[in-house]
Amino acid sequence: MEFTDIFQSDAFKLYGIPLLICLARITDVTIGTMRIIFLSKGMKYLAPMLGFVEICIWLTAITQVMANLTHISNFFAYALGYSIGNFLGILIEGKLAIGTVVVRIITKKEAYPLSAKLRESGYNVTILDAQGNTGHVNVVFTVIKRADIQKILPIILHFNPNAVYSIEDVRHVSEQGLPSSEAKSKRNIVNLFIKGIRK
Prior knowledge:
The protein is an alpha+beta fold. It has 7 helices and 4 strands.
């Protein structure tokens, strides 16, 4: 049997094509999920690049489905790949932890020890006096990288274990709002990208 005969065999049409369709859908939907997340974060250069790759893979998968309409397994492979791709896209984006978040901490205790520790750790902190349901509270704001969330939570729980905190994505933040090391890193990434385009 020649190598090309494998692609014409009934076994390949029954098992091989659905597998390839599923893998193609997993790949393009994973990329597509990340592209949508990157779009929501305002990453206007990376998102279109991912979109180009995504649609090329999608066209390959849908072409195979349309060319083999007699096999119901192709439809299930297409749907299965779509589902797995969504899951993997969200999982990968979570691991990458790209972007910036604002952490809002509301505490009844004096916020100075907490804010001092956060500043000592390199974060910019703003404190406001506010009035809660049961009296005076402090509201602490800080803008951090998503990757630093797991670093900052133990600090909050150590100094103010009963504090109420919320974490929200930020689409854009000025460099003045970032810790100095992060602002410098952000400038370096942007400069490298611009130099790459000019070349």
